[in-house]
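For this section, I looked closely at a protein sequence along with its fold in token form, which I now present.
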Amino acid sequence: MPNWGGGAKCGACEKTVYHAEEIQCNGRSFHKSCFLCMACRKALDSTTVAAHESEIYCKTCYGRKYGPKGVGFGQGAGCLSTDTGDHLGLNLQQGSPKPARPSTPTNASKFAKKMADVDKCPRCGKSVYAAEKIMGGGKPWHKSCFRCAICGKSLESTNVTDKDGELYCKVCYAKNFGPKGIGFGGLTQVEKKE
């Protein structure tokens, strides 16, 4: 049939669509004012439209009407658990009800897992985070706790020694745990037994 009206017919209102007001979708023409979701009447554009045969929907309504059904489906499409689907001609409440949610969480949150995995400083017992961690004696320490247990001197990898889970500078370690006698640990004479 010849089109004497000058333009294509709108897919929504069936009136003539002139070039200046035309939006094309799925091989059909629409007025800008008629380019609306068939379910919720929300204005559409090229990024929000989802076409099904001759019908156009927003992505949310399209997901509700044509997406997968069942427990756990529809959330990505914006479907709320309170949505009955009546405005789409659907009955989403069919079938068995959703299982009751357990009172205690089965999986801890990512944050809780991350907090549980944080190392503890042997000196102060507080959490040691990556920005402040120094390894010594196979354990993580705070920079401020990485000191000799006897003299309190700040330690580095070149002067640290560990014994029984505690850190010492080399001088204190030698005095307290090293060999005894002349030339060892700062002693200058051998103690004589009387």
Notes: The radius of gyration is 38 Å. Residues 92-100 have pLDDT under 50 and may be disordered. The chain is about 10% helix and 20% strand. Residues 39 and 88 are 6 Å apart (CA to CA).
